[in-house]
Write a structure and sequence with these properties.
Shape: globular
Helix content: 40-55%
Structural class: alpha/beta
Distance between the termini: 15 Å
Number of strands: 6
Number of helices: 7
Radius of gyration: 15 Å
Order of helices and strands: EHEEHHHEHEHHE
Amino acid sequence: MSSAKLKAVFFDFDSTISTPIYVEKARRWAVADNTALFKAMSIDEQRANLGGDARIAQLDSLFSDLKAAGVQLYIVSIGFTAAFGPHLHNAGLLAHFDADRCVFGQDCSALRNVNFVKGKLIEQIMHAHGWTYDQVLFI
């Protein structure tokens, strides 16, 4: 990586921000393409699906540090924002993201417009901001 300053970090949700748990009552893994399951999860299940309280605190610290360094944070996921958005809100993590401009799931027109190809959406965002490949990171 060159000495270019990091401008943006793009996070996936499932298995990146989240650590999917198996929900016994539903007999399914809690991934964000299942909006009904996400809506039915308790607060404790939601927190567990984010890795528990210690991991939520680590994510909060990471996001805070990145924002303090002037890095724009994004979520680009094939999951539904209607599923993962409330979980992030309940854990206090959604505040790190501009939910109107920086959180994308398969229920967002911007991701649908690129046929759900996350790299294409990221490329469009990069182009709109004039960012180069060495100024962004996709996790």
